[in-house]
Write a structure and sequence with these properties.
Elements: E1 8-9, E2 14-19, E3 22-27, H1 29-35, E4 38-42, E5 49-50, E6 55-61, E7 65-69, E8 74-79, H2 82-85, H3 89-92, E9 101-105, H4 117-124
Antiparallel strand pairs: 1-2, 2-3, 3-9, 4-6, 5-8, 6-7, 8-9
Length: 126
């Protein structure tokens, strides 16, 4: 299982990769493994500004549907349209081509509240 050290993590199993005032958000390798085969990603919040821990969409696997939560407050600038035709990218490349949204971070101080890779690993017992 992979936990890149350059990312921040949430207790809800999302990751965030910050680049200046923008960031990519996805679900962790652990989360995609627990969900199983991803069959559909539903994100209709593009252009909206949401608060930390607000639901920005859902992800459907063969077994279950799970809500997706904002790791920090921000505006959703872009949704990964590749997932419309290939939701399995979340399983195959959770930290790469399987990213979910690109956001403009509105409160950078919230990033300090997120988990490091080692703290996330401890949370899930890996």
């Amino acid at each position: 299982m992979n936990f890149p050290a350059d990312l921040k993590y949430t207790k809800d199993h999302e990751w965030i990769r910050v680049d200046g005032n923008e960031a990519l958000v996805g679900i962790t390798d652990y989360a995609q493994g627990e969900l199983g085969e991803i069959v559909y990603v539903d994100i209709s919040t593009e252009g909206e500004t949401l608060g930390k821990e607000e639901v920005f969409g859902s992800i459907e696997a063969v077994k279950t549907v799970s809500d997706l939560f904002m790791p920090v407050s921000g505006e959703i600038l872009e949704v990964n349209t590749a997932l419309e035709d290939m939701p399995e990218l979340v399983n195959e490349e959770a930290y790469g081509k399987g990213w979910l949204i690109r956001i403009a971070v509105s409160n950078p101080a919230e990033l300090e509240e997120l988990l490091s890779a080692s703290a996330y690993r401890e949370l899930i017992g890996k």
